[in-house]
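Mods, move this if it's the wrong board.
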Amino acid sequence: DIRTPASETEAVAGELAEHGLPTKPAVPLADSRVLGMELKSQPTGGVLWSRRAADLQPPSELTKRTVFSWCGRLTAHYPVCSWLRPTCSYLKRLANPDDSKWDVPVSEDVRKCCAALF
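Not the wrong board. Structure tokens:
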């Protein structure tokens, strides 16, 4: 993915095609989502980047499914938080014993870890 002025998209696509690199049609970034961020057009002609509103509270009912979903929302909302991704990975391993079902409540250890993480 590259950011290219609208006037140059055809030239860039042609250059890439000459080197065997097919492209998708150009898509305007204004009023769209990119990498978990929202882009909104401004009256001045600019674009404002903002985070989507996210419910980062831990789920009230903790199952393997809800723990995995919550960890995904956290790491998507804070992608550069260096300690969060390995912590969520550990939490998901803890919530996923060999014989667990997706919608069965998780152990007390997982509950404590979720409370500590939040």
